[in-house]
Amino acid sequence: MTAPTVAEIVTFRLKEGRDPSEFARAAEAMTPFLRSTGAMVSRTLSADPDGLWTEFITWTSEEAAKSAAEAMFARPEAGPFMEMIDQSDMSMRHAAISLYLPPEDHAPH
């Protein structure tokens, strides 16, 4: 696996009345596209009790992250995902990764 060099951190809230479970399914539907870029290393999606969502994606480069973000809008599966997000309350940033600890294999040996 290639070690990531940049983290993409997106925070947002869902539009009023949107079902978090339905949103999580729409987010999961984006995974095949993100994997197809060959540049996504990992992805997590979380929500705090106040309804603030955070998507944290690690990429092999900032250029790859930005390219994927641009290409995503042309993808049909992005429609349901993006439609549920309150765009007025969304923030995206990219940050260089200073420390990366890959997941450990916790399977019994």
Give me a quick take on this structure.
With 109 residues, the protein is α+β, with helices and mostly antiparallel strands. It is built from four helices and four strands, in the order βααββααβ. Strands 2-3-1-4 form a four-stranded antiparallel β-sheet.
Overall description:
This protein is of the alpha+beta class and 109 residues long. The chain contains 4 helices and 4 strands; from the N terminus they run βααββααβ. The chain has helices at residues 20-28, 31-36, 62-72, 78-83; strands at 6-12, 40-47, 53-59, 91-96. The chain has a 4-stranded antiparallel beta sheet with strand order 2-3-1-4.
Order of strands, main sheet, comes to 2-3-1-4
Kindly state the percentage of residues in helix: 25-40%
Characterize the main sheet: 4 strands, antiparallel
**Which structural class matches the secondary elements?**
alpha+beta
Shape: globular
What is the H/E order? EHHEEHHE
The portion of residues forming beta strands comes to 25-35%
For the secondary structure, the number of strands is 4
Q: What is the straight-line distance between the termini?
A: 22 Å
Gyration radius, in Å: 15 Å
- Summarize model confidence as the mean pLDDT: 92
Number of helices: 4
Residue ranges: pLDDT <50 for 5 or more in a row?
Answer: none
